[in-house]
Amino acid sequence: MNNVFSALPVQDLARTGAISTAKPVSHIGSEDSAVHLLKDFAEQKPAVLSSIMPVSEARLWMRLADTPIKLVENQTGDCIGILTIHDVNGEKPMMAANRQGTAIPDLRVRDIMRPLSDLPAIHYRDLKSATVGDLVSTFREVHEEYLLVLDDDWKNPGQTYLRGLVKARELVQRLDLTIDLEHRATKFYEIVNVVQGGF
């Protein structure tokens, strides 16, 4: 291969003392692309926990990392579920301990995580062609706080991998309510109900 590559033009900043930086889009509208809400693991490494980590240790890690959700990986590094801060701080540990007849300190992350089989998933190609309004409808339909996003694995034809996830809470926070307020407020209320479990 004799490809010819060209250098990009370089800007001279010798006389530039300061320059503004790009800011993430904080508000979105219902007609905006749904991709804006994707937490893309191809761009940002996800926070993970081992499935065999003690629940008490996982609780500490989640507090220190200040993150409401972590992926759970098995010993081969594959994602097998998710763990939320509500899972470790709520009634799940006590219920799991009673069900298994064991003490809470003996519980592992795998005992209280939400397995992949319990989670809704959409394909990345569908997300790319969807609007924020489409996501609203999807969250209303699945009654879940998270949507997993799968993508085709070009290294293994016919297989998919976990590309990222979409959080309903972020959708609530970033929805732009200043235009068409009455109609948008209805959608906002519906999403809040989904997030808080009020179906």
TrEMBL record:
Superkingdom of the organism of origin: Bacteria
Name of the protein: CBS domain-containing protein
